[in-house]
Design a protein that fits this description.
Helix content is 5%, strand content 41%. It is built from two helices and 13 strands, in the order ββββαβββββββββα. Strand 3 (18-21) and strand 4 form a beta hairpin.
Length: 182
Amino acid sequence: MNIRKTDLEGVMIIEPLVFGDHRGWFMETYSEKAFKELGIDLTFVQDNHSFSATKGTLRGLHFQLEPKAQTKLIRCTKGAIFDVVVDIRKKSPTYGIWFGTELSAENKKQLLISKGFAHGFMTLTEDVEVQYKVDELYSSEHERCIAWDDPVIGIKWPLSIEPVLSEKDERAHLLLDVENNF
């Protein structure tokens, strides 16, 4: 596996080694041993799988408060997404800064997101599947949501269409107003 650091400390792009031949391909998407050798020591406790039928579906920006904060390992296994993280650690020099990258079934990249970041994505194709591992169980009591179009953050989403949102995401708070214990 190859790791590329981003400008946000705690956010990394992971590129699995892909072995292909005339039959297709094989890759390890997660190996506790390989991650530890790369300095990443995590215990994942839950796998999640989402499906979005419509291009332009936007999920996020979500996070969980401490003590139920989650580190996530995200990958897109069908279609393509624009994946975004926002640093919400109040004392961080990159507080309020966002990073985005395309994850797709074709490029096989993964994004590792540490605790202290809000996460969201926009589907770039129809029929998208996203799978991710987390190191803490889901807790609705601790879940919070930041508005996808918060002008303070200023995310430049790749599609200039009105996104398809859940009711929860439509009611999201601005970064400066959301409860945040990071």
